[in-house]
Design goal:
Elements (H helix, E strand, L loop, with lengths): L5 E6 L2 E5 L8 E3 L5 E3 L7 E6 L2 E5 L8 E3 L5 E3 L10 E3 L23 H13 L1 H7 E9 L2 E11 L5 E7 L1 E3 L14 H14 L26 H9 L3 E4 L5 H6 L2 E6 L17 E8 L4 E5 L20 E5 H7 L2 E6 L4 E5 L8 E5 L10 E3 L10 H10 L5 E9 L4 E9 L4
Antiparallel strand pairs: 1-2, 1-5, 3-4, 5-6, 7-8, 9-13, 10-11, 11-12, 14-19, 15-16, 15-19, 16-17, 17-18, 20-21, 22-23, 23-24
Helix pairs in contact: 1-2, 1-4
GO molecular function, one term: calcium-dependent cysteine-type endopeptidase activity
Keywords: Hydrolase, Protease, Thiol protease
Family: Belongs to the peptidase C2 family.
Length: 420
């Protein structure tokens, strides 16, 4: 089933959104809290919005909170992603006082570092892109509690915006999957929304159309690709490379960058950098050549992952040499934001500095694929096979984009590789 399933009722020639839980067999609660009957108007016809299409629901109710679709399948009115713990209303605010920040992330009990690190990266470099993802649409009552409702935007593989509607109920109230930091909810809501969008087929995971948090990474320990997440968040073409000698130049060119470590790190690597993990590049100091790296597990004030003092870095600075020793791949793409954020290399009391540039060039008539480039997609099974063998076989596509506004010729590499 596609998720979310939004019901509409046609009554007296008007189409009403069914926003509340069923009040009883054949009834629903409208936006104003009034109990309506499916048979109060003649004809009373239900519609379900699935994958952007409005389908007529001609079946009888199968049970409280359910309906029978045209094919005889039993569907649910409240089709939230399956979680390993009960949903509880979460208290908090969407964004902190300074807007979305990469410091808001704290990955929980899901193997979706590829997604959480990507959210951190976009928040660090293009926070307005995060803000534009969310639209507040009001409140409703869920199990006796008032919860907020948000529409969350992602982009499908064709770059077309798609929308899912979620509420502020979270598994275990926000203490099981992404854990809201200082009561800031946007990361946890984006994670929930990505799971719902995956069920609807809008975004990519190894288990597309599965309506579950575990489709984001825990099923068969599948993990995912940061290129999927960055593309879904920004709508831009994203790729990867195993050549990490150009991270600094990619940063200076305005790229969003997520780095991955291998499952079998070299013996001389830093043990405080987790293997088989994704990290966001949130800062670069050209004068010192030092990068600032964010672990999606979160960070405490001393730069360690919460609860893992002196064991795993949360937020840390590193040189190009150490980066090459510890990381095996780079996911990158162009930010559409006109202002790129740069975090300072001070792990405590971080500040954000802005540098404004012209909008990066966009794909169009001036984009030309170089003659020798190739582009290839691999299935999840192929990715997992390569991961099992420990073999990296990236394919690369290079593009030159001439920006008439600035007169600059810029070149980007987009590669497809497997996610650790």
């Amino acid at each position: 089933m596609a998720s979310p399933s939004i019901l509409y009722a046609l009554q007296s020639g008007n189409l009403y959104r069914v926003a509340g839980a069923l009040a009883g067999p054949g009834q629903w609660t409208d936006l104003n809290g009034g109990i309506q009957s499916f048979a109060m108007a003649s004809p009373s016809t239900l519609y379900a919005l699935q994958s952007g299409n409005l389908y007529r629901v001609d079946g009888a109710l199968a049970g409280p909170g359910q309906w029978t679709d045209l094919n005889g399948g039993v569907q649910s009115l409240n089709d939230v992603p399956v979680a390993n713990v009960p949903y509880i209303p979460a208290n908090g605010i969407l964004f902190g006082p300074d807007g979305p920040s990469y410091l808001d992330v704290q990955q929980g009990n899901e193997n979706d570092c590829w997604l959480i690190a990507s959210l951190a990266e976009v928040a660090a470099r293009a926070p307005l892109e995060i803000e534009k993802m969310f639209t507040y649409i009001g409140t409703e009552e869920e199990n006796g509690s008032v919860v907020g409702l948000y529409t969350v935007r992602f982009f499908n593989n064709s770059g077309t915006p798609e929308y899912v509607t979620i509420d502020t109920e979270l598994p275990a109230g926000g203490s099981y999957y992404d854990r809201p930091t200082n009561g800031v909810l946007w990361v946890a809501l984006a994670e929930k929304a990505y799971a719902a969008a995956n069920a609807a087929g809008f975004v990519t995971t190894c288990y597309k159309n599965v309506n579950s948090y575990d489709a984001l990474g825990n099923l068969n320990n599948s993990g995912g690709l940061s290129s999927w997440a960055l593309q879904a968040i920004t709508g831009q073409t994203i790729g990867s490379t195993t050549n990490l000698n150009n991270v600094a130049s990619d940063w200076n060119a305005g790229s969003l960058i997520v780095l991955g470590t291998s499952k079998n790190k070299p013996t001389d690597s830093d043990k405080a950098i987790e293997a088989d993990h994704a990290y966001a590049v949130v800062g670069y100091d050209e004068s010192s050549g030092m990068f600032l790296i964010m672990n999606p597990w979160g960070t405490d004030s001393a730069g360690w992952a919460p609860g893992l003092d002196n064991q795993v870095y949360g937020l840390f600075s590193t040189s190009q040499e150490v980066l090459l020793q510890n990381f095996s791949e780079e996911f990158n793409g162009i930010s559409t934001a006109s202002g790129l954020a740069q975090a300072s290399l001070n792990p405590i009391g971080l500040t954000v500095q802005w540098s404004y540039t012209a909008n990066p060039p966009t794909a169009g008539a001036n984009m030309q694929e170089e003659p020798d480039s190739v582009s290839e997609n691999r299935s999840c099974l192929e990715f997992n096979s390569l991961q099992t063998k420990g073999i990296a076989e990236p394919t690369e596509a290079s593009f030159s984009i001439d920006n008439p506004q600035s007169g600059l010729l810029k070149r980007w590499h987009f590669e497809v590789d497997y996610e650790m």
